[in-house]
Predict the 3D structure of the following.
Amino acid sequence: MKISRFGKPPNLGHPEIMNILRTEHLGYVVAGKVIVDDVSLSVARSEVLCLLGPSGSGKSSFLRMLNRLAEPTSGTVFLEEKDYRELAPRELRRRMGMMTQQAFLFPGTVAENVRFGPRQRGVVLGNEKVEELLRGVGLSGFAERGVASLSGGEAQRVSLARALANEPVVLLLDEPTSALDDQSKLEIESLIKQTVQARQLTRVMVTHDVAQARRMADRVALFRGGRVLNVGTVKEVLDETH
Amino acid sequence: MKPIDHQAVIGLTQAGIAGAAAIAVVLLAGMKKIHLEKDISIALVRGLVQIVAVGSVLAILLKGPRWTSGLMLAGMIVAAGNISARRAKKMPGAFAVSTWAIACGAGSVIALMTALRVIDTAITSLIPVGSMLIANAMNTNGLALNRLRSDVVSHVGQIETALALGAEPRESVAPYVQASSEASLIPAIDSMRSLGIVWIPGLMAGMLLSGAKPLHASMYQFVVLAMIFASSGITSLVSMTLIRAKIFTAAEQLVVRTSD
């Protein structure tokens, strides 16, 4: 196993399993309206899958089903080849970190936010660990800052550090840069790439921005009307349809 | 017959004047784009019809056996649960939660105070005091559920972020449950705080008018307000505990997400 420069092995889960995440005929119907329709996708270890499509195409609902914030009305999800209904929701969500459009930081300090996830299972992160996580997202020395004083970009960095504090195996990203200005957007993209690659995390990222999908994705799944129209490498999907 | 007619005329005139004042407030609110017309109009007519009907029924029941008071109080609790639940539209299980919360809050205080002989078991005493406790518990419950619903809907992002980080549902809504519980008890706390300075409650005024000693009347009024506070507090706690379990699925997903 590769040892990282922090002296700690990256969280690889079960290395023998190639498809970390797999959905099987996943569907989501609300009040008779089909939001997600029979989506079967798989994501390999350390891969970045971008879900690309216009607003209302079902990509965010699909993402919310992956960590079971929304309950599929048909089909299921396999995490490391295990049906995720066999996992306790809290354990599933710990292993599937999430970053959303807004950071939704909790009132208090940056450190309190970073400690939130581990605290839920009785683990108290020490100051050094908090600082290490913050250094990883470029916020060294921010631990005792109040979250109210942070800029949008800084808040998203804290959100990333908070998600990583749980040591997830998959990171779900729901348009994490769409509320940011162009400069902050590029910085956060670069940060996600560096930080997450160092941990060999699998990523599923929702975006409606084709350019962002080109910059971030290994593969792209094109959503329209709740269905996946096409899935493949960036070149295969984007050069074929755009 | 003549004195009764005279009383009825006076009563109707007084109700008319009080109702006109309430309608004036509604019109004034309407001018300020606060639209309460439908709610208040229905509530006024409904309240008048109900209280006259209850007054008539009470006149008959007061002469009945004591056990009928238990039935009446139970009926009041169910009705209060129904009315209170409407303040929590689309909250799953709001009626059952409200009825249980009011039954626990008002019911336990009525039972305790009756057992300690603070409330007389005579229907003439038990029904008015019990109804006061139930009505206040109903208001507290309605306020708590209404506030919680509003807070949850406006903080879906924070709640789901907490869930996504592995928090228990209870932990994820804890700040909103606490705020709702506190807010629902503000009227009961303010009533107690302003007692005798800002207002002299109807019960005490009635006792004084019927010749009771002022000290006795004031002590009894304090006892009633303390009971109201206790029953409201229990109602709020039970209500929040029960509804917290209802707004999440077994898979720990938030059910109440939009204001629709």
Remarks:
- DSSP finds eleven helices and no strands in chain B.
- The interface with chain A takes residues 157-158, 160-168, 171, 249, 251-254 of chain B (CB under 8 Å).
